[in-house]
Amino acid sequence: MTEFQTNSPGDFETVQDTVWKQEIAFIDAVPRWLAMSFVFVVFIGSWQLVTALELVSPIILPTPMETLNDMIFVGKNLLTGGYMLGALWITIQEVIYGFALAIAIGFSLGVLVGETAFGEKAVMPYLVAIDTMPKVAFAPLFVAWLGFGIESKVALAAFIATFPIVVGTAAGLHSADENARMLFKTMGASRMQTLIKMKLPTGLPQVFTGLKIGAVGVMAGAITGEFLGGGKGFGELIRVAASQLNTPRVFSLILYLSLVGLAVFAAVSWTQRKVVFWHKERVGAGDA
Amino acid sequence: MTEFQTNSPGDFETVQDTVWKQEIAFIDAVPRWLAMSFVFVVFIGSWQLVTALELVSPIILPTPMETLNDMIFVGKNLLTGGYMLGALWITIQEVIYGFALAIAIGFSLGVLVGETAFGEKAVMPYLVAIDTMPKVAFAPLFVAWLGFGIESKVALAAFIATFPIVVGTAAGLHSADENARMLFKTMGASRMQTLIKMKLPTGLPQVFTGLKIGAVGVMAGAITGEFLGGGKGFGELIRVAASQLNTPRVFSLILYLSLVGLAVFAAVSWTQRKVVFWHKERVGAGDA
Amino acid sequence: MKPAVALEYSGAPVGAPVYDLAHVSKTYARNAVVALEDVSLTLRKGSFTSVIGSSGCGKSTLLKIMAGLIPPTKGRVVLQGVPVTGPRRDIGMMFQQATLFPWKTAVENIVLPIEIRDGKAAAKKAVEKAHQLLDVVGLKGFENVYPNELSGGMAQRASICRMLITEPAVLLLDEPFSALDELSRDMMNMELQRICREQNATAFLVTHSIQEAVILSDEIVVMKPRPGRIAEIVEVDLPRPRTLDMMTTPKFGEIVDYIRGLLDKGEDM
Amino acid sequence: MKPAVALEYSGAPVGAPVYDLAHVSKTYARNAVVALEDVSLTLRKGSFTSVIGSSGCGKSTLLKIMAGLIPPTKGRVVLQGVPVTGPRRDIGMMFQQATLFPWKTAVENIVLPIEIRDGKAAAKKAVEKAHQLLDVVGLKGFENVYPNELSGGMAQRASICRMLITEPAVLLLDEPFSALDELSRDMMNMELQRICREQNATAFLVTHSIQEAVILSDEIVVMKPRPGRIAEIVEVDLPRPRTLDMMTTPKFGEIVDYIRGLLDKGEDM
Amino acid sequence: TAQDLRDITFVQPSPSAINSFPVFVAIGEGYFEEEGLNVTVEAINGSGAVLQALSAGQAHFGRPGPGPLLAARSRGVDAVHIYNVAARSNFGIAVPQDSEIQSVEELKGKVIGTGTADGAEVGFARNVMTGANMSEGADFEFLTVGDGGPATAAFMNGEIAAYSSSTADTAILNQRGMAVRDITPVEFGRFFGNGIATMAETIENDRDLVEAWSRAFAKGHAFALDDANREAVLAHLAAGNPQEGEDKEFQSALFDAVRSKTIPTDDSKHLGWYPAEVWKEWEDALVKGGEISGPLDDLSAAWTNEFAEIGNAAVGE
Ligand SMILES: Nc1ncnc2c1ncn2[C@@H]1O[C@H](COP(=O)(O)OP(=O)(O)OP(=O)(O)O)[C@@H](O)[C@H]1O
Ligand SMILES: Nc1ncnc2c1ncn2[C@@H]1O[C@H](COP(=O)(O)OP(=O)(O)OP(=O)(O)O)[C@@H](O)[C@H]1O
Ligand SMILES: [Mg+2]
Ligand SMILES: [Mg+2]
Fold this sequence. Notes:
By secondary structure, chain A is mainly α. Chain A is built from 11 helices and no strands.
């Protein structure tokens, strides 16, 4: 039998309130800015250390300082509407269009795969097979058909981002439970209605997992596209800088690029919070 | 008020059984081999058409026949233990180790991100930022630290496959419902116990979504690693063939590679079915 | 099967047969549990039938088979002269677990069947009716609340509203009032009776409350477990409409006791 | 608050106070619903207290506050002389929704609290006891079945076993028997009484069945809704141990009627 | 015996064995072994990566282009070219066979495609165009089209009029039925291309190694230049890259194209010899193109002919 704590009762007659708050573990209580700064400092610190100890050649890894200086340079160019801004804008367009395309295709295929046995049995294996293939093989095809404009990069970006969305959507459609399915059957819902009004909302958390991974993939896809199929985007600037062994520039460019990636990811996360409002994402022990 | 069907009752006195089966829509009833063959035929058919109409240069897209011939050649080499077999084996090793590493790291980070506010607020943004960065920038670092052996490719493969696993795991940890959380609290479960015995099992479907996407990513990562960091794997063969515009070879090699990808993906799917046995993945209208 | 001869009988349901079950059996393939064995049953138009039986004796299974949600292993199920071989629109069903969708408010959940049957516009028009139904079940003021802010009993009551909104001709109810207090339950029983009479609906109710079964039903199907079979079908000859004060009449007590007796025996069977 | 003077009183709980609630209020921030207002209550060691009140009057909320799962907005909760400011191990709680984990069999679900408290080895040893408990609740033969193969009432009974296995000193039960038939319910009531007596446990039971409340309790807390408050605390002076045939005694009927009266009034308050 | 051999890594910027044929011939003929070296070849992605691998100490020798080497030097990486492999430049500007364009002057107002692997061909093309008195932007445009497939696509879509690429790429296009014609004026052959490089540190601390390497390499080079050895050479290349050796005709044609560019323009000089004045020209071109920010402090430290001489001396033996 569970042992009682030994304080004698009655001691608390005078206690007025035992209103309490969910205990929040230290690790969860750290404010965001502090936590981020901490990681930042650790990050930059080790980077500085690696370069200061000359563990690695400066043409492989620049120092944080060099990178910062170059970021200021690049930043100025961007702010004053220099050529880099144009390049960044091209890449941003590729990312946006690519993501939109990936969402449209990935979602449709995800529904096909998640909803029909045909999709699951016959389409999915091909999707997996295609997605494991190195994209270099397709870059020439995209270029041949779509040219060197942003179209071919959009296609490649979408290509890479599609698969996670397919997997997420398909998994989401499987997550509805027995009761909900039965309920929809008794309501005489058509397959389409069951899909749209029940399975999809239920599966949204999984769909968003796919979208988040896709959001990051689309960035990689656009840059890969620019590497393989040329063009005038940010990836091209990176490539040129890399071929010139201008590593501070390479790093400063990719840091700017990662801000774009963060923005896309943040947009997806924000949408998720708005759309899946009933599914409170709760973190840590301090959840009530 | 719902209208009744108009058959007069009593007609069915003689009916013995109305044992029925879940109606399976045509699209779900097609047997796997037929469905796969159908997609295959459509696939190869359009491919054949594109090449037959010379919509694209043979240097960019070989004909299915050329590719098949080359696949036979490559197949022979593989079966007779030729140089390609060695290369394939290297790549398979990279994929296996890379995936294992990605699972270990991705899962740990996923738990950190999904379980602690610190992870979510401070670590995740950095993961997103790093993952959006083009991997080319890191390939030299990996080579510098890990050399030309499979280690550097394993690292890059793991790098690419980690992120989906992080996102999947973190999302999975958020999927436990209020009741289960409260139940664990009343049982006096520690945070660790709640994590391991409740949140993780509950979140497994999402974890597997991440693993599936990662399984495909790890393949791409290993090949990217070989493209950028040398080595003697299958990616190297593809690169040689591509640089020589030997497109039938490129396509036949990547088709073989995609079989490896399929195998990895299938292994993950199989594991999911075994591990998440209570979460029947049901497809189509024919679910009971 | 012993008929309910012990009770004077008057006022059996006289409508045309609506449901006709003959020799229905169900074995769950997964664990080879025989949930139902040779269940035969006829429900007549406008009648109210209750099922009572110990936990696990196959009541929910029976309802699901009648609703065409799961196929029987053997036997015949005919509804309105048409064999049941899948879910049917002319049925309103309420499940044992109240399943409200968390992304919809109470009212949105309630008009969902209308939305599915007749589209969004119709659903919009049905909001007024949903409000009325919520009012009837005592949930006025909770129209726009999301399900996770409702108590257990409130969620159950909202589910009832969802079933009622389409005014189905046949109601299948699986312990619809289990989370309600006696008072609300009595009130809901009377409302249910009123609605069934108004719409001349045929009702089939799973319950664990003998009182509830007796006050509502024309016939009570008493089941015994393992495998689930019908022990007896008891006819309740209390006059219609039933009122709550009938519960204090000796006849009511008699029937209740008779059924309790059947259930007691069922345990050893 | 009118005391239960109408009833002769004899046999109040005499143990030391275990739970002490004073002026507990709870307002849900999200929708500003006042779920509880100024609830004061003392539970004594070994006593059995029931809460009864209409659906949505705050019973589940009260239990969650007592269990330290959600904080009160105002007021004091002291358990065993220690303020409750979070979940406590000395409590066994059963929720209104039976939450069994689908990846564990019935027995595995039941020994889970042991596994969490004392580790895998202890859980393994507790399997024997889990079997006994399953037997007590009539689930012999379903030990290794997964939850989705159980009926509603079976799942509820398995949850009860899970709560009982740690032999907690304080039991908080939220409508634990709502999905059970009367017979099983009566049987479970007697088992619960036996277990509480054996372990000298303090029990706090939410129920909608006045009969159940009366047969089990030393005190019955009658609540009225919106906001949830205590209408009256009725003491039940039936001798211990209670037996099922006490339910037919006039005194039992008197108390039941008295409480029904309180609840009826509660509706208009 | 094999155990006593020293393991040496050589990195090349592209996967083809033919582009680094002297190495494979030297391996195949056992020249390295004679010097006590066991050479492993790694193919990575472009000259930049080659220099990164060298500076990281992951490789002992590499075959970067002169442009990237100067860029690396300008960033404080003391890499040194010790053997001029592509003495006659391994770059060229090509147009489709049936194109009306006959000379670089006619490229005015056109778009010139450039590859992606190296970045060196851009510098080369700029040199050529500057030589024809044209400047980027005003008179012509560069468009990065990547190598192989995309370049072909660019030609076929008419998106580019000419393609600045490596000799090998041009040969490959021809072999694959995309007939192209090199219109680079002969004098630009002086802009030598990729050569063998190592770190100054290696030269200083491990001089014996560099000498041993150079001897074996030069012997391999000389062996391959002798037509009598053709069969053996192709066999060595196929051993180094079996896939490349599968199509004999293709391999042979590619080898010819590459080999022809390795013979010094000034035939009075030995194999691997570097002309100092062209280094200066390269530097100017890079400064003009912005690849490096200004002239190097000591351009002459970027290369040495010393080891090529030692190598050539060994050939005679
Ligand atoms: N998580 C929540 N957020 C907001 N409001 C809530 C929440 N939980 C309960 N409520 C509200 O608090 C009130 C009391 O709910 P509670 O669940 O305590 O009722 P109850 O007495 O247990 O009812 P029942 O008998 O139906 O289970 C209700 O009005 C309900 O709408
Ligand atoms: N999906 C299932 N798979 C396997 N067995 C099942 C399944 N559903 C129910 N059973 C079994 O069938 C029997 C009847 O279950 P059912 O749910 O019909 O009982 P019930 O009468 O509704 O019980 P309760 O009153 O507890 O809800 C039980 O023994 C149960 O274990
Ligand atoms: Mg049931
Ligand atoms: Mg409740």
